[in-house]
Structures are given as C-alpha cells and as structure tokens.
Design goal:
By secondary structure, this protein is of the alpha/beta class. The protein is built from seven helices and five strands. It has a five-stranded parallel sheet, sandwiched between helices. The longest helix is centred in the middle third of the chain and has 57 residues. The two termini are 36 Å apart.
Length: 224
C-alpha cells in the first residue's frame, strides 16, 4: 500500500515538531519546512498527497502558497491552520480550493480525523477516475474489435471464393499466398477478441459505469 506523504508548513518550530510527530505516529511520511518559499521548492521536486500549512507566515502567506500549489500540483490537497481571529481568511481559503481548515491550537484527535478524511476522499476520487478510464477503454476496445472484424470477414469471404474458383484452384503459388493471408487474418481476429474479452472482464465489477461515454472512433477524436 502506498505510504501517504504530507508536507507541514509553519514558521513556529514547536508547532511543526508537534504536527510532524502526530502524523508520523499515524504512519504517514512527513516533511516540514518553515516557509512557503521552501515549501514550493519541495513541491516542485516531489509529489505530496497533502500540505498542512499555517495561513499566517513570514514572507509568502499561506493563501499565496495555496494558489501556487493549485498551479504546480493540482492533485495535492491543502488543509490550512488558522487562529480564531483569522476565520475570515480561512473562508477565503475554502473559496480558493483548500480542502479543509483547522483552528489553533490543533486538537490531536481532530487533526488525525481531518487528515485521514482528506486522504481517503483523495484516494476515492483517484479510484473513480481509474474505473471510468478502464470502462471507457473497454468499451472502445469492444467497438474497435467489432469494426475491424467486419472488413476482415469480408476479406476472408473473398479469399475463400478465390480458393475454390476454377482458375485459382490449381495454382499452388496463389493458393499458398491465400492461405498465408487467411492465417494472418485469423491471428488478427484472435488478438482483437482476446483484447475485447480482457478489458470487458476488467470492468464487469463496475456495472454502474456501463453507460460511460466511449471514444467516437468514426471521427477520430473523443465525443465533445
């Protein structure tokens, strides 16, 4: 199971120390920095599942950090920490896309619950996107298989006619060529059938997504 990575941003060393210890004891991979600027350097080089940041920081504020994270790493969730006098700012942060906020001083149990909930929702969202992608691929593969099989069957029919025609029946060279063509077509059909069955089997447990929109193969691009 993937270990969740969290970045703690706070200019108070004692706060960082406390938060890091609490989160590490829950099994998370945790790093900590004292400023938004240092946080951004880390985020540019590493993918974090969650950033836990104070709103009031020296230099770049927590709100500015949030805005940058949304550009650099939009999949990363952000939980902000604020004092009682900064609730208005916390509301602003929510409007900017922060996942949640906590009031200082942070209650340990509440912190664990909020972090766990955020990461669970993030995992759920990723799984739903994966299911939708697999479902779309499966339906596209089945459609592609059907559309390829139709012309292949026509070609096979013509090969059979040539094989039994009086003019071609005695020509061994042509008969051998037709046999090679026939074998190759059957191989293509077999591959397409196996691919269709494989992707269909993968999505059988996700029946709720059976009407998910598939790629429009006739136009060469996805439906708009």
């Amino acid at each position: 199971m993937e270990k969740k990575s969290i970045l703690v941003v706070d200019d108070e060393e004692i706060v960082r120390y406390s938060l890091v210890n609490i989160l590490r004891n829950q099994g998370y991979e945790v790093e900590e920095v004292p400023s938004s600027e240092e946080a951004l350097k880390l985020i540019c080089g590493k993918q974090f599942h969650l950033v836990l940041t104070d709103l009031v920081l020296e230099g770049m504020s927590g709100l500015e950090l949030l805005e940058n994270i949304k550009v650099i790493s939009p999949q990363t969730l952000v939980i902000v920490i604020t004092g009682y006098g900064s609730i208005k700012t916390a509301v602003t942060a929510l409007r900017l896309g922060v996942y949640d906020y906590l009031l200082k001083p942070c209650d340990e149990e509440e912190l664990i619950i909020r972090v766990r909930r955020a990461l669970e929702m993030q995992s759920y969202g990723k799984e739903q996107r994966r299911i939708q992608e697999v479902s779309a691929i499966a339906k596209t593969t089945v459609t592609l298989s059907d559309r390829i099989n139709t012309p292949l069957n026509i070609i096979l029919g013509n090969i059979e006619m040539l094989q039994i025609s009086p003019e071609m029946e005695t020509n061994k060279k042509i008969q051998n060529t037709l046999k090679v063509m026939e074998d190759q077509i059957f191989q293509i059909k077999d591959v397409m059938d196996k691919l269709a069955k494989l992707t269909t089997a993968e999505t059988r447990k996700y029946m709720a997504l059976r009407d998910y929109e598939i790629i429009d193969l006739t136009s060469g691009k996805g439906n708009e």
